[in-house]
Amino acid sequence: MKTVEECKLDTLKHISSVQNKMLELAKQLIDRALQHDRSKIEEPELSGFANAPDLSSMKYNSLEYNENLKKLQETLDHHYANNRHHPQHFKNGVNDMNLLDLLEMLCDWSDSSKRNKNGNLQFSIEQNANRFSISPQLVKILENSINLVE
Question: CA distances (Å), 137 to each of 3, 49, 80, 134, 143, in order?
Answer without folding.
Answer: 42, 34, 25, 8, 10
